[in-house]
Write a structure and sequence with these properties.
Elements (H helix, E strand, L loop, with lengths): L4 H13 L2 H9 L3 H10 L2 H7 L5 H8 L4 H10 L2 H9 L3 H8 L4 H8 L4 H11 L6 H4 L6 E3 L4 H8 L12 E5 L5 E6 H6 L6 H4 L7 E2 L4 H11 L3 E5 L5 E6 H19 L12 H6 L2 H28 L1 H6 L7 H24 L8 H31 L2 H31 L9 H23 L5
Parallel strand pairs: 1-2, 4-5
Antiparallel strand pairs: 2-3, 5-6
Helix pairs in contact: 3-5, 5-7, 7-9, 8-10, 15-16, 18-23, 20-21, 20-22, 20-23, 21-22, 22-23
Amino acid sequence: MGITLATWEKLVKALDKGETNEIKEFLKFLSPVELAEIMEELSLPKLHRLLPFLTEKEIAGAFEFMNPDTQGLMAFHFDNHKLAQVINQMSPDEAADFLALLDEGRVQEIFNYLDQETSNDLQKLMTHSPDTAGGLMTSDFIAFQADKTVGETLEEIQFLELEDSEILSYIYVVDQREKLIGVVSLREIFKASNETLIKDIMHDKVISVELDTDQEEVAAILERHGFLTIPVIDEENILQGIVTLDDMLEVIERETTEDIYKQSGLSVTDTEFLRSEKILKAPVLTILKLRIPWLVIVLVGGILAGGVIGQFEEILQSVVVLAFFIPVIMDMGGNVGTQSSTIVVRGVVLGQIDTRNIWTFLGKETLIGFTIGVLAGAAAALVAFLWQREPLVSLVVFLSMTLTCTLASTIGYLIPMLSHRFGYDPAASSNPLITTIKDISGLLIYFSLASFLLRQFL
């Protein structure tokens, strides 16, 4: 929490004793983020005591930083008229996300307390999937027609009630039918004379996204171009809204967390569990449900790997030193495969790897795996020779390490890449799966080479 423990205890004490002046003084200097954190941590009775001291605008500001659980709790204890007043103070995209948490009947009742324009905007935003540009966009944006002068534009901007600085960064230009035809920065407008037409200073090559563009693609475009906002258009090129950078930062954090969990073998399907505190505070049974499914695959893979070793029991008993290098080869292959899969997943998410260069990167990853295998294999083979003074054992270790690392790098690339090609999340082909396949294949390579090259020891 942003406030100190002493300050927190002071607030709790004031709420318990009903010290009105102390509570008002405490709230006077809180930011919306700090207020949201406090409301999430307070017990229900103390939250009830706090709410009468907050205005609708303060509650709306805190709402935008709350987790959905606390938002739902707040909605349960507010009547529809009060909720409508809070929603009127929220940005449209945040308000639409909040309304999506409520049942349809209550949403319709809340709409009755909103003005027609706000109600129409929110209903339009709520029709789009939340993980698309349409679901992320806000209808708060500035757009002017191309034939307006700079002076007229500046005069109208003065009367707009827009608090978001990102929204003020770009002015979008539309034609008579509201089609997006250009963009101009506020800085360029200030530099131009009042008589200059907007169309004479606008940039007509506008980078935009469509309503159904996936959120990961929107994030990649914003990152690639360094934009603060990006316009959202429909199939007729009519400007529908904008997606702001702060919204995309939340998406990037959520997507990154999801990929990390999936690659670690956590079967997270509820998007709310992508919040780290949600998982930390979840019941033990819930945590087990998230973690066990992929671990079962690892367990089965381990049993199969043990079966592979069992099939080569005779050579392992004859050349005991082979057992020493089993974990070395398996660990090296596992790390190489994990590195490769991590690079691929990131490349796919950012749009750096696609059908145009898939085979180029496959060849590159295979070559990298081979090179690592040669270097690591040479080092391990040298250790084996200095220890055992047996060239054939060193050769087995060298070839096994080289082939295992090469195969691991290829597998680490192919599994997430094939998942993506068939429409699945590449991160879902998690590291436990790649490691299990690599362990079994690595052991087969190691003992097959040992059986072939070390027959004289049998």
